[in-house]
Specification:
The chain is mostly helical. The chain has helices at residues 4-11, 23-44, 46-77, 82-90, 95-122, 129-136, 139-147, 157-190.
Length: 191
């Protein structure tokens, strides 16, 4: 049972002018705050991940250039262009030779794709980087970058900008989630 003096004070006007907040409202505010913090923390890491991904992509691009340079050297020794040299392999009667032609063809395609992706990502303005990343991401490279990702403290303008966007996204997500849950509860009560 409540202390009578506390009970009487609780029923009367709040002497300190404090507004009592219901548990539901407190939970709602807490969940929005947590969503905002989670969004800020998550998105603030994007610039660091982007840089680490770009370094890996650049390394893979360097390797592709080395591989194609070797094939181009062999083609020059035969007085052929790269395409003509690969075509000799592709038209050969022996399966292992044709298979090697397909490997060289894939290496040449990889080089073109990696060069385009690297240029697009390196030149991307800060605001468009997430969209450019989504359009040019090499999944195996992204997975490897994520596996070895080292979080960074986002003290620069870019990291703080992404943190703010993440915070707003978290708030929007929490608001949308609240509306979905409220609608589901209303439907359940109506049944």
């Amino acid at each position: 049972m409540l202390n009578p003096t506390y009970s009487a004070a609780a029923k009367g006007p709040d002497p300190l002018g404090l507004v009592f907040i219901s548990h539901t409202a407190m939970l709602s505010r807490a969940s929005r705050a947590l969503a905002a913090l989670a969004g800020a923390a998550l998105l603030s890491q994007f610039p660091a991940f982007y840089d680490q991904y770009l370094q890996r992509l650049g390394g893979r691009l360097d390797q592709a250039r080395i591989e194609i340079a070797r094939v181009e050297d062999a083609a020059r020794l035969e007085h052929l262009s790269l395409e003509a040299y690969i075509d000799v392999f592709l038209r050969d009667a022996q399966s292992p030779v044709r298979r090697q032609g397909r490997v060289m063809q894939a290496q040449a395609s990889d080089l073109v794709r990696l060069e385009a992706a690297f240029a697009a990502l390196r030149e991307a303005p800060i605001a468009t980087r997430p969209l450019r990343f989504a359009g040019h991401a090499e999944v195996p490279i992204a997975r490897a970058a994520l596996d070895d990702f080292q979080p960074a403290l986002p003290l620069g303008t870019e990291g703080l900008s992404y943190a703010l966007i993440g915070m707003l996204g978290g708030l929007l997500g929490a608001g949308a989630g609240k509306r979905v849950v409220s609608a589901a509860l209303r439907r359940r009560r109506a049944v």
